[in-house]
Amino acid sequence: MQKSSRNISRDGHAFYLWHAAVPLVVFALLILTVKFTDLDRRATELFYDASISVFPLRDDWLLQTVEHVGAKRAVILLAVLVIVAWLASHGLATLKALRPVLFFIFVSMALSVLSVSTLKNSSSEHCPYDLPRYGGVLAEPAGPFETVQKETRPGRCWPSGHASAGFCLFAWYFAALRLEKRRLALYLLSGVIVIGSLLSAGRVAQGAHFVSHCLWSAAVCWFVTLALYEALLRRRPMQSVSSSLTTSNQAAS
């Protein structure tokens, strides 16, 4: 028992190092780098045509219909399939062992998006295409929570809601980690970063968000998912999928 407890304690320290401390430092460095290198402005102006005062890709069919609307609907469909599988796990022995994981994935995806949306609706920071320097007509607040004058509507553009559609998939990395599929977990983590980055880049190209908006979205999704993983899954004993199948077969015979 003592040996087992020491192992759990040691694994816990390593887990928090790599999933809490390191990401906190990485996100802080990235956000500070964007701020002090003026990367928000530099990246945005790559896609802004000053001669006609517009973002040429703002209404681009591929970015708007496929990358924006289509990707969001795909993530919603994925979440629906997860909750359907969770409901089915109450009647199907083959899914019983995955029930806690399925519940975690759905809740994490939903709360990650909701957390970003709540912050976004409380923010007064405008989208790039709303700002005078990029052809817009609204005043520029100094920060996300600066008080907005009565004659201007709230910006509600920080952090990026669309980026959260990609970064909410961090839940799949943690789910694979809990199932002890470490190689799969790393593949999933890489995939989520790529998907989230592509969705972010699309909105930056349309003038809908700054790079920093997307970084903040990724940070919020990561730490919300981490908190839910700790609360719902990490310390919960789970029967392996193979053991569950064996048990159900024995019961059927």
> What integer value in Å does the Rg equal?
21 Å
Structural class of the secondary elements? mainly alpha
Instruction: Note the total helix count.
Output: 10
- The fraction of residues assigned to DSSP E strands is under 5%
Shape: elongated
Measured distance between first and last alpha carbons = 35 Å
Biggest β-sheet: count, sense, barrel?
A: none
> How much helix is in the residues?
55-70%
SSE succession: HHHHHHHHHH
Tally the beta strands: 0
Q: Residue ranges: pLDDT <50 for 5 or more in a row? A: 1-10, 147-151, 241-253
Domain count: the total is 1
pLDDT averaged residue by residue: 87
Can you describe what's shown?
The chain has helices at 2-36, 39-45, 61-88, 93-96, 99-122, 161-167, 170-178, 182-205, 211-234, 241-252. The protein has one domain. 69% of the residues lie in helices and 0% in strands. The chain starts with a helix and ends with a helix. The protein is mainly alpha-helical and 253 residues long.
Give a topology summary.
Elements: H1 2-36, H2 39-45, H3 61-88, H4 93-96, H5 99-122, H6 161-167, H7 170-178, H8 182-205, H9 211-234, H10 241-252
Highlighted features:
single chain; 253 residues; mainly alpha; 10 helices; 0% strand; disordered N terminus; disordered C terminus
Task: Please summarize what this structure is.
This protein has 253 residues and is mainly alpha-helical.
